[in-house]
UniProtKB/TrEMBL annotation:
Signal peptide: none annotated. It comes from marine metagenome. The lineage of its organism: unclassified sequences, metagenomes, ecological metagenomes. Residues 9-209 form the HpcH/HpaI aldolase/citrate lyase domain. InterPro entries: Aldolase/citrate-lyase_domain, Citrate_lyase_beta/mcl1/mcl2, Pyrv/PenolPyrv_kinase-like_dom, Pyrv_kinase-like_dom_sf. Keywords: Magnesium, Metal-binding. GO terms for molecular function: catalytic activity; magnesium ion binding. This is HpcH/HpaI aldolase/citrate lyase domain-containing protein. It holds the Pfam family HpcH_HpaI.
Amino acid sequence: MKPFPLCPLFVPANKLDWIEKAERSEADGLIIDLEDSVPLEEKGKARDGLVEYLSSEEISKPFFIRTNPLTSREGRKDSSSFGEKKKNFLGLMTPKIESLDELKDLPDTLKITLLVETPLAIENLASLASDIRVNGIALGGADLSAELGSDMSWDSLLYARSRILSYASINGVFSIDSPFMQIDDLEGLEEESRRAKSLGFTSKFAIHPNQIEIIRRNFLPTDQEIEEAKEIIKAFANSDGGAIAVNGKMVDEPVVKLMKKKLMLAGFNPDN
């Protein structure tokens, strides 16, 4: 699995002057949004403005571009406008994706993060996540709950989260948990971030700068966890490859794999 942002922050594509401020934030990635943040009558202008911006400016943090749905006229224009590789460009984030047929016109070299927002997308994840272009899977909880007729509580969306994590793991891609929509409820964000990390998500969306510190703190390994991971990896590398004990803990290959993921989260190369 390649490095990925732990806490990508949304920036509306019709407010490009916000990018510089977002770059100065603690967010380690950006999502430049052409979909929900942009009114219909401004989508063409926002897209053209973003094309011009990227032709003259470099974004210092890894970033996605969230398109409109690829089945829509605006989405097709979005996807054809941003196929060129730019520095720090992580690829397109495609909303309401439901079938591989929607990706057929995209080049194989273009990376895609699937934004899962419908029941059909949840059921089709086995085929969607295996596509060579897919580098991540993200949960769009607000749209999915609207489709299901549910609320956005943890229990209501647990099945969807579990499906996403299963297919992200099978295909070795990152996973991004749904945004926490109550901006002022920092205790609620803390609890949901803790649960998402415990379940296996590698990242969580931020929709406001005041969410960044809490998300990063919950997803980043502690100093103690980093040292433990290094010790376990080193001990296993010096063993015969079978199960060993390290500080009273049984360690085998799956445990070492988890330790390597922790080091990657903290920005370390686990193979050094």
